[in-house]
C-alpha cells in the first residue's frame, strides 16, 4: 500500500467506493458466527416475522465492518483516529451494500496532518443504511 500523501488530498476528494456482494442468509450466518451476535432477528425467519419484519436482515455492525474495509483499503488501520456512525436504515436480504467516503475537512491535531471523511453505506437503490464520519492521519 502506497502511503496517501497529505498534499494530494483536498476537500471533496472521494475514496474509491467499495461494493460488496448482495447480502444473503450465508452472509448473515457467517457474520453471526464471527461476531458472536446471534440475535434471532438476523438468523431466524420465524422470529423476524414475529418482530413484524418480512424476513431476517443484516446486522448493523456488518455494514460498519464494511466501512472499516473501505478505510483500511485506503490507509493502514493504525492511521484511523476515529469512526462514528448513525444507523439510518435496514439492510435487507438481496441488498448490495456500497460504501463511500469523501474528504470534508483537512486539519492538524496532536502534531498530525489529518482529514475528516463523510462516510456512508447505501443499498443499490441509493438508500443510506449508515452515515457517519471518520478521521484519519496522513503523512
Give a topology summary.
Layout: E1 18-19, H1 25-35, H2 45-50, H3 60-72, E2 80-87, E3 98-109, E4 112-122, E5 128-138
Antiparallel strand pairs: 1-3, 2-5, 3-4, 4-5
Q: What does this protein look like?
A:
Pfam families: MaoC_dehydratas. This is Dehydratase. The chain has about 140 residues and is of the alpha+beta class. It has a single domain (about 5-135), classed as Hotdog Thioesterase (Thiol Ester Dehydrase, Chain A), CATH 3.10.129. It is about 20% helix and about 30% strand. The chain has helices at about 25-35, 45-50, 60-70, and strands at about 20, 80-85, 100-110, 110-120, 130-139. A 5-stranded antiparallel beta sheet has the order 1-3-4-5-2, covered by helices on one side. The radius of gyration is 17 Å and the shape is elongated. The model has no long low-confidence stretch (mean pLDDT about 95).
Relevant terms:
alpha+beta, Thiol Ester Dehydrase, Chain A, 139 residues, 5-stranded antiparallel sheet, HotDog_dom_sf, Dehydratase, MaoC-like_dom, single chain, elongated
Short description:
It comes from Pseudomonas alkylphenolica. With 139 residues, this protein is an alpha+beta fold.
Amino acid at each position: 500500500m502506497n502511503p496517501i500523501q497529505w498534499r494530494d488530498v483536498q476537500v471533496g476528494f472521494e475514496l474509491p467506493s467499495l461494493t460488496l456482494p448482495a447480502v444473503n442468509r450465508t452472509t448473515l450466518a457467517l457474520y453471526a458466527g464471527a461476531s458472536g451476535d446471534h440475535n434471532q432477528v438476523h438468523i431466524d425467519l420465524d422470529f423476524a416475522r414475529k418482530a413484524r419484519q418480512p424476513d431476517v436482515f443484516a446486522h448493523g455492525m456488518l455494514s460498519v465492518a464494511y466501512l472499516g474495509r473501505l478505510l483500511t483499503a485506503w490507509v493502514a488501520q493504525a492511521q484511523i483516529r476515529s469512526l462514528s456512525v448513525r444507523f439510518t436504515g435496514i439492510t435487507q436480504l438481496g441488498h448490495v451494500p456500497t460504501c463511500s467516503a469523501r474528504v470534508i475537512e483537512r486539519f492538524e491535531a496532536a502534531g498530525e496532518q489529518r482529514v475528516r471523511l463523510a462516510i456512508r453505506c447505501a443499498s443499490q437503490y441509493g438508500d443510506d443504511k449508515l452515515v457517519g464520519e471518520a478521521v484519519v492521519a496522513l503523512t
